[in-house]
UniProtKB/TrEMBL annotation, chain A:
Positions of the ANTAR domain: 122-183
GO biological process, one term: phosphorelay signal transduction system
Response regulatory domain span: 11-116
Signal peptide coordinates: none
PROSITE patterns, alphabetized: ANTAR (PS50921), RESPONSE_REGULATORY (PS50110)
Matching Pfam families: AmiR_N, ANTAR
Modified residues (4-aspartylphosphate): D55
Listed GO MF terms: RNA binding
Protein name according to UniProt: ANTAR domain-containing protein
Species name: Lichenifustis flavocetrariae
Keywords, alphabetical: Phosphoprotein
Upper taxonomic lineage: Bacteria, Pseudomonadati, Pseudomonadota, Alphaproteobacteria, Hyphomicrobiales
From TrEMBL, chain B:
One Gene Ontology term from the biological process aspect of the record: amino acid transport
Name the UniProt record assigns to this protein: Transporter substrate-binding protein
InterPro entries on file: Leu_Ile_Val-bd, Peripla_BP_I
Species per Swiss-Prot/TrEMBL record: Lichenifustis flavocetrariae
């Protein structure tokens, strides 16, 4: 069972002109234990909060200092409009969840939970993707090392691969790191 | 200056949880009658009563009629959380104020609702803080198959797990289902230290009767060794269960009929005068009574039934009541409430322990550790060249 999500101590920035929307948000976020800052100017990349809520009706490019594939914090779009261009803008900023305006207080906690989860999943996926890219890039290295072990031990490709993996595990290295070490002249433990 | 205050009174006084709805309605009716007598002729309180009989569609329909046709800006009502969540959009649309008087599962703080019923930091959490060390940490969860049962069971699981205890079983029944054979068999087989029941009405009554029988067959399941505990069982349901049947079982409430305070003695005298001396007062009755007083007195103070004005008139205002001093917290729209643990004895509860007023924390923020900024997930992508 996953524990009840909570946000106590989170710093949230609401990027929206002050008014009823920001008042409602600030009240409810305060209740949920967040520290809230209201702002209607580009966010400072050097001082990012834990969560950003942005006006997608009036938001402009440059308000958020990131590209969507490297969005550093959970992002919630505040949207009253149905205009496709504004929905696209919210997506382009990397919005993890949406709260429709006028804001119903019951929409806020669910959006927070969803945004944090989506953001975490996005990060995990990006990390996994980066790892896979790295492994593909280093594939020739592994193939080279396997060839070398096959020659040295006069064994099959499968056995060579297994030996390489075993040695990598023993040394607590990735397969790719082990392959590089081998190709640079290090010896494997016999057996 | 307002001369008529129209108050919708929307409780299911027929259907599966009629006993609860009837106590809520009677508490409201008593307060309305008294207020009318106190305030005099310049100002009339016009209650509009509605009985949705436990049907979500009828709750919505009646609430809409009350606000859109009858001119009510305030409705006291709904028993289940399902009904409350059904009615809230109507209140939001017409900017009305709903006054909700029943204990519920928390995770809500709507601007169009004033909550005078207890949320989990006022019932379940103090209950388990007492029971886990004294009764044991092997717990069985029984619930009604809707948001109250689901969320209470989920929260109970979280509290028990955090305390190093174990949920030995869990089962939810549809509201009104009295086929509790499997549930009781499971309790018998799993041998919990206690059972938390978040069931409602007939299911709960059937369960309590079956547990009495089980306790007679096997002393391991008497209320002393394996009590059934709940956060919504009150005096008003004891006659339906059968007097004496559930003796020894436990429940929490912000009020019990047996509380010996001057405010409660006064309330009980008024109830006896109107409903007879046999009538036991439940927390539903007492909360509904106090809530109507809070609402109407605030309207009289500000001279308006405009919900914004009424809410403003409640700010920093404390009203004495049989539940102790009541004050609506501006930030949460909830009220602080005392916690009492009662043991069923005949037609009432023997109060075992009490805690003074606990401020409502509907999102359970207080029991959580502060998350530092470093907790927030920020990307740490390795640069791949």
């Amino acid at each position: 069972m996953s524990p009840t999500p909570h946000f106590k101590g989170f710093r949230a920035v609401i990027l929206h002109r002050p008014g009823e929307t920001t008042e409602r948000l600030a009240r409810q976020l305060g209740l949920l234990g967040l520290r809230v800052e209201e702002r209607w100017a580009p966010l400072d990349a050097a001082d990012l909060p834990d969560l950003v809520l942005v006006d997608a009706d009036d938001g402009w490019s440059g308000l958020l200092p990131w590209t969507p594939d490297l969005k550093p914090v959970p992002l919630i779009a505040l949207l009253g409009s149905e205009a496709p261009g504004r929905i696209a803008w919210a997506l382009d900023q990397g919005a993890d969840a949406l709260i429709a305006k006028p804001i119903a207080s019951s929409a806020i906690y669910p959006a927070l939970v969803m945004a944090e989860r989506r953001h975490a999943e996005g990060l995990a996926n990006a990390q996994r993707m980066a790892d896979l890219h790295e492994r593909i890039r280093l594939r020739p290295l592994v193939l080279g090392a396997v060839q070398q072990v096959m020659v040295e031990r006069r064994c099959s490709e499968e056995e060579a691969h297994r030996a390489l993996r075993r040695e990598a595990m023993r040394r607590r290295l990735t397969l790719e790191q082990m392959a590089a070490a081998l190709l640079s002249g290090e010896r494997m433990k016999a057996g | 200056m307002m001369d008529v205050f129209r108050l919708g009174v929307l409780f299911s006084t027929s259907g599966d949880y009629a006993a609860i709805g009837s106590d809520c309605r009677d508490g409201a009716a008593l307060a309305i009658a008294e207020l009318q007598a106190e305030i005099g002729r310049d100002f009339a309180i016009a209650p509009i009563f509605g009985d949705p009989a436990g049907s979500g569609a009828r709750y919505i329909d009646l609430a809409r009629r009350m606000v859109a046709e009858d001119g009510c800006r305030h409705i006291i009502g709904t028993v289940t959380s399902q009904a409350r969540k059904d009615v809230i959009p109507v209140m939001e649309k017409h900017d009305g104020q709903l006054w909700y008087v029943c204990p519920y599962e928390g995770f809500e703080a709507n601007g169009n609702v004033i909550y005078t019923g207890a949320c989990p930091n006022q019932h379940l959490i103090p209950l388990f803080a007492h029971l886990l060390p004294t009764q044991g940490r092997r717990v069985y969860l029984a619930g009604a198959n809707y948001v109250w049962g689901w969320e209470m069971n989920r929260l109970a699981r979280e509290i028990v797990t955090e305390a190093g205890g174990e949920i030995v079983g869990e089962r939810c029944l549809p509201i009104g289902d009295t086929d509790i054979g499997r549930l009781v068999a499971e309790v018998e087989a799993r041998r919990p230290d206690f059972v938390l029941s978040n069931m409602l009405g007939p299911s709960n009554h059937a369960f309590l009767r079956a547990m009495r029988d089980l306790g007679r067959r096997d002393p391991r399941f008497t209320p002393e060794r394996c009590p059934v505990v709940s956060c919504d069982l009150t005096e008003c349901e004891l006659p339906d269960i059968g007097l004496g049947v559930a003796d020894g079982q436990l429940a929490t409430a912000a009020y019990f009929d047996s509380l010996d305070t001057p405010e409660n003695r006064a309330l009980k005298a008024r109830v006896a005068a109107r409903f007879g001396t046999e009538r036991r007062v439940s927390s539903y009755f007492a909360t509904s009574y106090a809530t109507v007083r809070l609402c109407v007195e605030a309207a009289v103070r500000c001279g308006s039934d405009d919900p914004a004005h009424v809410r403003a008139a409640l700010t920093d205002h404390t009203m004495p009541s049989a539940l102790g001093p009541l004050r609506i917290d501006d930030a949460t729209n909830h009220t602080g409430l005392p916690f009492h643990l009662g043991r069923i004895a005949g037609d009432g509860f023997e109060v075992l322990r009490s805690q003074p007023c606990i401020a409502a924390d509907p999102y359970l923020v207080a029991r959580r550790p502060l998350l530092s900024s470093s907790h927030a997930l920020k990307p740490q992508l390795r640069i791949v060249s």
